[in-house]
Design brief:
There is one protein chain. With 511 residues, this protein is α+β, with helices and mostly antiparallel strands. It has 2 domains: 209 residues, Chloramphenicol acetyltransferase-like domain (Chloramphenicol Acetyltransferase, 2-Layer Sandwich), CATH 3.30.559.10; 256 residues, Chloramphenicol Acetyltransferase (2-Layer Sandwich). Helix content is 32%, strand content 23%. It has 12 helices and 19 strands. A 6-stranded mixed sheet has the order 6-7-8-3-17-16. A 4-stranded antiparallel sheet has the order 1-2-5-4, with no helix packed on it. Helix 9 crosses helix 12. It is globular.
Length: 511
Amino acid sequence: MATSRYPHLDWRESTKGHWERELDEVEGFYTQIAKTYEGTGRMAFAITGFLSFSVAASDSSSLSETHQLVQLALRSAWIRLRYSHPTIASHVEYDSVNQKWIKSYTACRPESPSDQLEEWLQATFIPITSSVSGLEWCNSDPIAPKCPSLFVITPPREDEDEVRTLRHNLVIRSPHDIIDGIGTLQLLNSLLFYAAEAFNQPETWVPPPPRSECQDLSPPLRVAAAIPPMLTLAQQVRLQSIITRNFSLREGVQVLTLPLKRGSLLPGKHQRIAHEATAVDTARILEACKFLNATVTHVYHAAVAISLRDMQESGQDSRQVRYISYALLNKRSKCAGEYRTSKHAATVYHSVSGDNLSLDLVIPSAAEKITNDQEQPCVKEVGDFYRAQGSPDDLVLAPLFMSMATPHIENPTLAPHEVPIPDPNMSPSVSLSSIGVIDKIIKPQHGPFRVDKPWVTGEELGTGLGVFLGTWNGKLQLSAAYNDAWHIKEEVDAYLNLCQKVVRKGLGLDD
C-alpha cells in the first residue's frame, strides 16, 4: 500500500485498527459536489448499481426454503466482498483539525470480529420486500447511505405460472467518492460469484485472520496509474491550450441547451428511464457502424447532439448552433498491475475529458425541412474526438480536469442546511456515458443464479440529462437519468425515441 510519490495518499494506520488517507482530485470532486447538495437531503451523483436475478427451487426445497438459502448466500457473499474489497466499508469525512477530507476504514477488531461484522451487516445489508418493481423502487427516492450498502429486493411476482422460480433485485447504493459505475458492476459480478459458491456449498469459506483485509485497501487513481506529481513544461502548455480552447468555444455562437420546466430552485427525485433495442436491430446497428468505421458510442453521441438540435424551436431564418459536451473516460486500462483488474473495483478510476466535444449544427428555418446531411460528418467528428483522448498526457492531466470542476466550499464543517445549494443551471446540456458490453463485466450465469437487466447510474440532481449506452445479452440499451424537478418522463422518453430515430436514419436503417 505504500508509495513514494504520494505519502498523503498512502493508507496509514492512524490508531490501532483505524486506517485513513487523503483523497485525490477525482474523489475530491465527488465528495465536495455531494457536500454542496447535502442540504437538499439527497446525495449528488450517488451511485446506483442494479441487476435482477432468478433462481429455480430444487425439487427437494420449497420456495420459502429457497428464499432463505438465497438470503443467506447473499449475506455470506456481502461479508466475503468486505474482505476482498475492504474499501466498500470505508467512508469519507472531513478532518476539521487538519482541515482536509480523508477516507477512513476501520478493520475488524481481533478481539471481536464477529460483533463488528454484524454491526456493519446491520447497517449495509438491507433485505426489502417491495410492492413495486426494482426500477420503480430505485426511482422512489431511496436513501443514499454514507457507506456502500446492498439492498436485496424481493419484488412482486411477474408470472404466476413460474411457481418454482424466485426473482430478486440487487441494488448497490454508494457515494460516488467510494465507487464509480464500472467498479459497481464489477462488484455485483463478484458478489454473485461468491453467492453462487455459498448457495451450492454453504459454510465452506472461512474469513481470513482479523485485520488482514487492510492490505487490499485501494489507492486513488493518481497512485494506481502512477501519475507524476508535477507537470512537464509541455504538459503545462497543453493544459493552458485546452482551457483557452474550451473557453473560446462558447464565444460568439448559440450553444445548444436542453429545454426544461422552470420554477423549481431545488432538485426533486432522480429518475431513470431506458429503451432497449431488439437483438436483430442491435446486430444491424453494429454492422452499419463498422461500415462507417465508427463505434456505436461515436454514432450515439452524434445522435445525442443532433436530437438536441431537433428539439429546438425553429425561427424565421435558419441559424447555426453548437453542441458542447465531454466524455466520461474509464481509466482502469491505464492503471498498473492489479489496479487495472476487478480486484480493485471499489475505486474511482475514471475522469472527464479535458477537451470539450464541439459540434456545429444548423437549425433550419420553420419553412425548411430537417435533413440528414449532418449525421455522418458528426459521427466522424465525434470519432476523432474520442480517438484523441488516449494520449499519455491526457492521463497525467486527468486529475486536474476534475479539480477544475470541483466546487469551492468555504467551510466544510458547516451543517448541511448552512451550505449554499447551487442555483439550477438554466442552460443545461446532454452528456453520454458509454458503459460498453456489460456481459464482459457481469457473467449472465453464476451457478444457479441467472442474471438479467444490469445497469448503473449516478444520482442526477442537476438540470441536465445524463444518457447511458450499454449492451447486454446482445441488445443495445439507451437510458437516461434526469431530475423530476425540471423534466418529465414523457419528454425524456420522447428524446430517447428521437435519438433512436436519428441513429437509424443516419445509418440508413429506416425500413
